[in-house]
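#struct-help
A.M.: can someone run this one for me? Single chain, 301 residues.
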Amino acid sequence: MPRNIWSGAISFGLVTVPISVASATEDHSIRFHQYHLEDMGRVRVRKYCEIENREIDQSEIGKGYQLTKDQVIPISDEELRDLPLPTAKAIEIVAFVPLGSVDPLKIGEGYYLAPSGQVAAKPYKLLRMALDRSSKVAVAKYAWSGRERLGLLRVREDAIVLHAMRWPDEIRSPEELLPPPVELSDDEIDGALALMDSMTRDDLEGEEFQDTYTQALEQIIEAKREDREPPKLQERESEPGQIVDLMAALNASVEKARASRGEDADVHEMPKKKTAKKTTAKKTTKKAAAKKTSGHRPRSA
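D.P.: on it. Structure tokens below:
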């Protein structure tokens, strides 16, 4: 059972839905501590007070805002929790929008919203079914951890999920990172679409979507625990030369995708390069050859 991290309500017009919040994701990453290599003693970060020059306990630590070099304004957790905001105790829905209109870059961590008690069951189900039937998501405001946030509410199976969102001014413009202008042919675009077709699937299940990094770390830790040599990285077979032609790379990629999935029937054929220019070149060559032959014709006596 996931731990509740916040309790409050969803404010949906004049409808109130008491809810509790739990994380919708789990982190299975392997984490490391820092150790002194000479004797493997644990290295820890000590917290010192700069004025008293002594180590202090966590219970002595609080938050503060540095107003000037010499003046700090203390802010308690109670003051943050009791901020005079309508969103301090509720997730306030402010709009409904199509999911496709939300930039995925704005969407962050996900949390399950669970109804709190029997009184919340009916309004919770009402909001869930309304979101589901409308094919829309709700945009809301709420205040957690000392700041007001923007959120997105959507339906996942029979639950309502809240995604933390970034404010519009927190998204950087990609303009300065864009490549210089280039030209693409229709054949190259069609080739990319054919490659996408060959890689399209209905779900995200399978070996391709497993955390192989964590698996490799587990193998190393297990091998060292058993005092044996850790497994070595298997070198990939070197390919005969680098493909620099874009169409050739697309063709090779489609063939590789077909071979790995064993699916040929559902994959569109790659477009063939247009030969109009080659044909024109041949005609030009023939004309040039004819002129050249004509220019060297022997004069009559």
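A.M.: thanks! Helices lie at 77-81, 121-134, 186-198, 212-225, 246-261, 276-295.
D.P.: also worth noting: The longest helix spans residues 276-295.
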